[in-house]
Q: What sequence folds into this?
């Protein structure tokens, strides 16, 4: 956000204020950090169900006869493999192989939709715009025309099922459908950022308040809680889901971040392809790993990582895991020490706390199974 501009408010901002949420500025938006507290909200999603305002995320529509070819050029995953109503996780790269953003690509019947990080909306849109062909592709920034709510947790389907006249079992993981939810037409996808089963709902901003209230009412018997950015962060960290600006950015490539599974070299050319092939051929020097602290401590972004007294890395994301009851962190460390079982020390304030590399994800009992490397 440029200096002097007012932070934006999502369509659900009045609901957060009414619920006495702790409001913070995030990615240019006024967002709830928590309502009741990060830990109870986190546990609600792991054990029952929670609902999140994610209307700050960006949505772009790409259409026209050249849409697929353009997406193939701009992203690392293979969008040609998508069937209608299917989504995929992907990244966009700079020419040097650094990451522009991580995103979702949806194939809809008449167009594609990209869902990008809130902090990167303007940057991403300009990046895509600067590579548009002269004809055959239309790019539209629909971010202000779309509100988004995520309902996540083992009971998410039970709650949403009460509001739709459609068997939600029919929507497979990373697939979507256009449905009426509480009488309002919207895109419903079985996706999320928590490691639990759940859905993300894309709707017109003017109906967001109605849908929010309907979800909370339908979820009351299941112990639903409204959840803020705090729980969203601790949940995704327990799953080793990357956060742009912390774990990945323009200085990291997908291979060292453990995102090689969304890089499809065989699909043909895309921006950054040669650079990451070259980096891999020369040998990756570092890797993003999961560290579990062996003594009590709260690791945070920027904390130094040591091995045998020598500084070798830095924490990119860290928290005290509500489910594991121990400190957990993501950190880039030398590749030769990146295998599970290797030991490090994380400097928490003035104390170096022993830590061990563990196989991702930290939380292994989630209701969603995803690939990790």
A:
């Amino acid at each position: 956000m440029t200096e002097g501009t007012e932070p934006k408010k999502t369509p659900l901002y009045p609901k957060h204020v009414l619920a006495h949420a702790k409001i913070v500025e995030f990615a240019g938006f006024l967002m709830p950090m928590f309502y009741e507290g990060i830990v109870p909200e986190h546990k609600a999603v792991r054990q029952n169900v929670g609902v999140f305002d994610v209307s700050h995320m960006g949505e772009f529509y790409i259409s026209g006869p050249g849409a697929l070819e353009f997406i193939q050029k701009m992203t690392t995953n293979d969008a040609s493999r998508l069937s209608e109503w299917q989504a995929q996780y992907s990244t966009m790269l700079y020419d040097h192989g650094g990451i522009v953003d991580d995103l979702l690509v949806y194939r809809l019947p008449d167009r594609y939709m990209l869902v990008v990080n809130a902090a990167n909306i303007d940057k991403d849109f300009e990046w895509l715009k600067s590579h548009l062909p002269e004809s055959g592709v239309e790019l539209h920034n629909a971010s202000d025309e779309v509100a988004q709510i995520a309902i996540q947790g083992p009971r998410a389907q039970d709650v949403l099922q009460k509001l739709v006249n459609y068997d939600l079992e029919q929507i497979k993981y990373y697939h979507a459908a256009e449905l009426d939810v509480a009488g309002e037409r919207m895109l419903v996808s079985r996706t999320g950022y928590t490691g639990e089963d759940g859905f993300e709902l894309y709707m017109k901003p003017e109906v967001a308040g109605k849908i929010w209230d309907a979800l909370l009412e339908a979820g009351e018997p299941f112990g639903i809680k409204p959840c803020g950015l705090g729980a969203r962060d601790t949940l995704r960290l327990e799953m080793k889901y990357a956060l742009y600006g912390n774990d990945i950015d323009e200085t990291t490539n997908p291979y060292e971040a453990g995102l090689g599974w969304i890089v499809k070299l065989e699909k043909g050319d895309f921006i950054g392809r040669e650079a990451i092939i070259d980096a891999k051929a020369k040998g990756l020097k570092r890797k993003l790993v999961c560290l579990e602290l062996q003594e009590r401590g709260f690791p945070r972004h920027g904390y130094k990582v040591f091995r045998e007294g020598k500084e070798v890395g830095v924490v990119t994301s860290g928290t005290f895991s509500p489910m594991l009851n121990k400190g957990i962190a993501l950190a880039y460390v030398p590749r030769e020490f990146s295998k599970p079982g290797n030991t490090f020390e994380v400097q928490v304030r003035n104390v170096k706390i022993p830590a061990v590399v563990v196989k991702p994800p930290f939380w292994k009992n989630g209701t969603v199974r995803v690939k990790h490397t």
About this structure: Residues 63 and 111 are 5 Å apart (CA to CA). The mean pLDDT is 97. Helices lie at 13-18, 38-47, 67-74, 121-129, 156-161, 208-219, 229-238, 273-282. The domain at 8-55+146-238 is CATH 3.30.1360.120 (Gyrase A; domain 2).
